[in-house]
Amino acid sequence: MDAAVELPLLEVGSESFKPLEPGHLDSMLTSTGAGIVLSGMLTVAVQAVCSRCLREFPLDVTAEIEGFYVEEGQEAELPEEQEFGFIVDGSVDIMEALLTALALELPFAPLHAQDCPGICPQCGADLNDGPCACGPDLSRSPFSALAELLGDDTPKE
Questions:
Q1: Tell me, what's the pLDDT at 1?
Q2: If you write DSSP's letter for every residue of 57-100 in order, what string do you get?
Q3: Under a CB-based contact definition with an 8 Å cutoff, are residues 108 and 15 in contact?
Q4: Spatial distance between the Cα atoms of 17 and 28, rounded to a whole number of angstroms
Q5: Span 133-146, mean pLDDT?
Q6: How far apart are CA 65 and CA 108, in angstroms?
Q7: CB contact at 8 A, 67 and 82
């Protein structure tokens, strides 16, 4: 089955991902006698927000889809750890399997680039656009405690 799938807003932890277009589903439903097996791939482009600089950017996500569906009353025959859905009136609702697969693939801290420098903790400037006027924050230096011990020993003119 090759189909376009409308997806809702996806949330993973504190991050939200808005689909930019319908997802592309390439899947197969197979009857095994014990139930119906869903397998395939889902690809979707989502709007993400970079965790470091807060820029919005498009993110392509591909997820492997799996699902198993049985008629109501047949679930007692399945192993305890088997995850499954129900066949209702001859059809299956695969949306839960799609959303679960996407949730496993979406990042908890999306980045538009691995080397994103983020924003300045002092002034909030986006450091992707270049350095800000704040200069380096020396209070975070591991040697700042030494400077406190030495005091102000600068020579006076």
A1: 81
A2: EEEEEEEEEEEEEEETT-GGGS-TT---EEEBTTB---HHHHHH
A3: yes
A4: 26
A5: 69
A6: 20
A7: no
Question: Residue 19 contacts by C-beta under 8 Å, 6 or more apart in sequence?
Answer: 6, 7, 8, 9, 10, 44, 45, 46, 47
Confidence (pTM): 0.76
Residues 6+ apart with CB under 8 A from 31: none
* SS3 assignment, position 48: strand
Supply 107's token pair: 């990042």
The pLDDT tens digits of the residues spanning 83-111 come to 888 889 888 999 999 999 999 999 999 99
Dig out the tokens for 67 from the structure. 């699902």
**How many CB atoms are located within 10 Å of the residue 32 CB?**
9
Q: Domain boundaries in the chain?
A: 2-105, 118-157
Residue 128 vs residues 54, 57, 58, 125: alpha-carbon distances, Å: 11, 14, 17, 9
What type of residue sits at position 59? L
pLDDT in tens, 54-89: 999 999 999 999 999 998 888 777 878 888 888 898
Sign of the CA dihedral with 37 first, then 87, 75, and 105 last: positive
**Structure-token pair, residue 36:** 């119906």
